[in-house]
Every structure is written in structure tokens, then in C-alpha cells.
Amino acid sequence: MRARTVINGIHWLITIMLLAFVWFTYQPDPRANDSLQSVRQVSAELWLYTTQNNDGGATVPTVFRYYFHNTGGADVKALNAEFPFLTGGGTISSVAVDGDRIHVDYSGKVYGMENKSGPYSLSYSIN
After folding, report:
1. Model pTM greater than 0.90?
2. What are phi and psi of 39, to 5 degrees?
3. Closest among 31, 41, 43, 32 to 73, alpha carbons compared
4. pLDDT in tens, 103-122
């Protein structure tokens, strides 16, 4: 009788631990409902893509994700396979390409930022 109680207790403990693990590790893709907002050619072989996500309604701000891609005509699925170089709630006012360096002028809130995008090194001016 006592062994059965211990085995049942261990069973429930393991079950609760597995459920807690699944609960804390499951994170849906935040980019799943992004929509393409704009496409701009920056240089002969580089394009700037902007996606927008405003699924949060009135309580969550609109999130913009900025990507550099080496061809025009990419869709949101192709962009979601890559990482955005900048994620935020503002806008990019200018982009300057100098060889393998890109300078980005940005104003607004920043949620995430990268220093490299493919073969390019990035530098920022943030207001």
C-alpha cells in the first residue's frame, strides 16, 4: 500500500513537471502575423523591407521589423526565415551604404538591434 502511494506521488510529480516545462517553453512565433509594409531599394544589390505587426490591439504597440535582403520581390514568409536587423516602434529616415558598412538613421523605440546583417556591418543614429 505504501509503495503504491509513493509511485502515484512520483507519477503526479513527473506529470506536473512535464506540463510546467511545456508551458514555459512554448512560445508562439511573434512574427507569424506580420504584413509587408514597404520595400525600398537602398543600393544596386540591397533592398530594405519593413514588416508591420499590430495584432495586439489597443493595448500593445505596433511593431515594425526591418530587414535587408539582396533581391527585390521577397515575401513575408521569406523574410520570417531571416532575422530582422532592427525591431522597434519607430521609423527609418535614411539608409547610407558605404562598401560593406551601412548607416541607419532611426527615430522611435527600439525593441531589438543587430550589429551585422549578412555581410554588412551596421551603425545607427537613434533619436
Report:
1. no
2. -135, 130
3. 41
4. 999 999 999 999 888 888 89
